[in-house]
Amino acid sequence: MFTSIKGHSVIVTGASKGIGRGIAKVFALQGAKVMVVARGEVEAKETVDEIRSNNGIAEMQLCDVTDWDAVVEMVKVTESEFGCVDVLCANAGIFPQTKIFEMDPEEWDKVMETNLKSAFLCVKACIPQFKKKGNGRIILTSSITGPVTAYPGWSHYGASKSGQLGFMKTAAMELSKYGTTINAVMPGNIYTEGLRDLGQDYLDSMAATIPLKRLGVVEDIGNAALFFASDEASYITGQTLIVDGGQILPESLEAIEEI
Ligand code: NAP
């Protein structure tokens, strides 16, 4: 049995849909106070409404996580709404698919800013909170794509997700003096709005290569994030947890067919 996270203040970026919404719902179900962060008002409000309709506590703050001033404001609003920040789930991300030869430098920069720089900005903005309290938890949503696997069209995305892990390791050392841990969840293929946009053929072919024979659900990632935020994970920092239904295991197509 894990110690309760009830009453803790949790920021979830990219919580207007997909994995972020799943993380927000999982924490809210455990009694945490959740700040739903995204740019799109309509979908962010849907997350808040869903949490509240299940008697959970949620507020929202519209914020582009690539904008330093907006990120600082987002943390300020969370402190004034909930009193402090206990947990940061830096989850917002994009995954446009473009091969290197066809990729504009601007697209490379946009992916790096949204996926990697934003993690730095959100962590930096929360440090005064963690410093004040003498503890804190940070969970990054990385990916298997980049750190472990490869997929044509995702060179920038893979680089950004590997970059998050490089950032995390030094951050784990720097933050240790504030009693703060930082860890990363590495999802495989999780069924989200973003993934759905890649098309049914992609979804079907990916499910066929996963030993557990299905895509993950957003709560799978929410539960992993919840573990890293728990008291029981207080001695784990700078580490990763792959949540992928066994996707990275098969050596070949034949290996999957052998099951
Ligand atoms: P999604 O369904 O497209 O949701 C992305 C979320 O990020 C939305 O809430 C979006 O809200 C927000 N976002 C994007 N850019 C933002 C910005 N500049 N500022 C603030 N919020 C922003 O994507 P997802 O599949 O849930 O992915 C979420 C995270 O999981 C990403 O970091 C992704 O790399 C990672 N991941 C996903 C999978 C998967 O299979 N789905 C696998 C591995 C890793 P707005 O557009 O309203 O701002």
Kindly describe this structure.
The protein is of the alpha/beta class and 259 residues long. It has one domain (9-192, 217-251): 3-Layer(aba) Sandwich (Rossmann fold). 46% of the residues lie in helices and 15% in strands. The chain has nine helices and seven strands. It has helices spanning 18-29, 41-53, 68-82, 105-133, 155-175, 193-196, 200-208, 218-229, 253-257, and strands at 9-13, 33-38, 57-62, 87-90, 136-141, 180-187, 240-243. Strands 3-2-1-4-5-6-7 form a seven-stranded parallel beta sheet, with helices on both faces. Strand 4 (87-90), helix 4 (105-133) and strand 5 (136-141) form a beta-alpha-beta unit. Helix 3 runs parallel beside helix 4 (105-133). It is globular. 44% of the residues are buried. The structure holds NADP nicotinamide-adenine-dinucleotide phosphate. NADP nicotinamide-adenine-dinucleotide phosphate binds next to helix 1, helix 4 and helix 6.
